[in-house]
Amino acid sequence: MPRSIGPKFPVVVTSYEVAMFDAKKHLRHYNWKYVVVDEGHRLKNSKCKLLKELKYLPMENKLLLTGTPLQNNLAELWSLLNFILPDIFQSHAEFESWFDLSGKANGEATKEVLEEKRRAQVVAKLHAILRPFLLRRMKTDVEWMLPRKKEIILYATLTEHQKNFQDHLVNKTLEGYLREKLDTGRGLKGKLNNLMIQLRKNCYHPDLLESAFDGSYFYPPVEQIINQCGKFRLLDRLLNRLFALEHKVLIFSQWTKILDIMDYYFSERGFEVCRIDGSVQLDERKRQIKEFNDVNSNYRIFLLSTRAGGLGINLTAADTCILYDSDWAMDRCHRIGQTKPVHVYRLATAQSIEEDLLALLRDEESAEDKLIQTDISDEDLERVMDRSDLIGGLSDDQNDDAVIGTIPLKGPGWEV
């Protein structure tokens, strides 16, 4: 029988590294009442060494602590649930089958509608499955002194360059157009077989498509990079104002090639940047985070990929988060320890795949469609960037449905 650990050591605190090497040798000889795993998302890979070693420990109760339990991957979620309740969540294949909500469709538009419906059904089923096992705590539940946060959607409009690319994508003529334009016999490095992804790339920056044909490793002049893309043009305007007001900024993108373009842009503008993506090792991550958070640091920009930049990263020196093409990573700067009000800017492209696929297929335009298909004016940009309403400490019930502080919830090219 395993020995009791006794009253002298009622709690053992250890690191993952020690647990991995000592689980079979020492820790498995004790009956554990509770095992608490911080940064529990580290167990999302069902084949990882840490997970295998922890399963050797005899334990009555298990608790995972994590800020990111799910990242669009059912296999990762199953790995966590299998560790918590292996008797219930035994089979990965069976777990995946619960979400097989596929249906047949005749047309492309019908497929998109069915896919959207399927996603909604998956989310509803996930909520039902997780409800008995997941205790969710918001930061506001445990830290009342945390500064307030506001999210602002800024709508960019497609440039003529992007509209041209979009038309060629829809008509399946982009490859021929680029080959003729660049006067090259090169072909595409991959097939344009997923129209939705290619349309999204065009929104993020058309260079993602053009670079697949261009054998050069050099970017065009920075002004061309800015003016080719409505969203990048909006980003440039926003950053100019943020830096003039001495804010520190996190910028997230799921595409490392977008981070590469931003690296080039900042380098041409004379700014040094910190950057974390999947290729950056742990020691280098820690060094950059420490430098960025230092009160005397000259770094004003931190570029992060959404996958690599979402796990265990605390960047409270920043008071501004820009989500270039995603919507979940805003809490890297709005965390316990933050002392300044936080603005989150989510950039979206109006009248595109990013805004609403069905709007592209409608003949008529509503008043709201026209509102967001307008570039935000310099005056309105100044208004939405104002943070005085967050500093004033107004409670939610002091703001009505039409305004936040003195700022309307919607205007031409923006939405709070």
Give a quick rundown of the structure:
By secondary structure, this protein is an alpha/beta fold. It is built from 18 helices and 12 strands.
Structure description:
The chain is an alpha/beta fold and 416 residues long. It folds into 2 domains: 16-130, Rossmann fold, CATH 3.40.50.10810; 147-156 and 236-393 and 401-415, Rossmann fold, CATH 3.40.50.300. Helix content is 39%, strand content 13%. It contains 18 helices and 12 strands. The chain has helices at residues 16-22, 49-54, 74-84, 92-97, 108-130, 139-142, 160-170, 174-182, 195-204, 207-210, 222-227, 230-244, 256-269, 282-293, 357-361, 367-372, 378-385, 388-391; strands spanning 32-37, 59-64, 149-156, 249-253, 273-276, 301-305, 320-323, 342-349, 403-404, 407-408, 410-411, 414-415. The strands form 3 sheets. The protein has an 8-stranded mixed β-sheet with strand order 5-6-4-7-8-3-12-11, sandwiched between helices. The protein has a two-stranded parallel ribbon with strand order 1-2. β1 (32-37), α2 and β2 form a beta-alpha-beta unit. The radius of gyration is 25 Å and the shape is globular.
Summarize the helices and strands and which ones pair or pack:
Layout: H1 16-22, E1 32-37, H2 49-54, E2 59-64, H3 74-84, H4 92-97, H5 108-130, H6 139-142, E3 149-156, H7 160-170, H8 174-182, H9 195-204, H10 207-210, H11 222-227, H12 230-244, E4 249-253, H13 256-269, E5 273-276, H14 282-293, E6 301-305, E7 320-323, E8 342-349, H15 357-361, H16 367-372, H17 378-385, H18 388-391, E9 403-404, E10 407-408, E11 410-411, E12 414-415
Parallel strand pairs: 1-2, 3-8, 4-6, 4-7, 5-6, 7-8
Antiparallel strand pairs: 3-12, 9-10, 11-12
Helix pairs in contact: 7-9
Domain Helicase C-terminal: 234-382
Pfam families: Helicase_C, SNF2-rel_dom
Organism: Hevea brasiliensis (Para rubber tree)
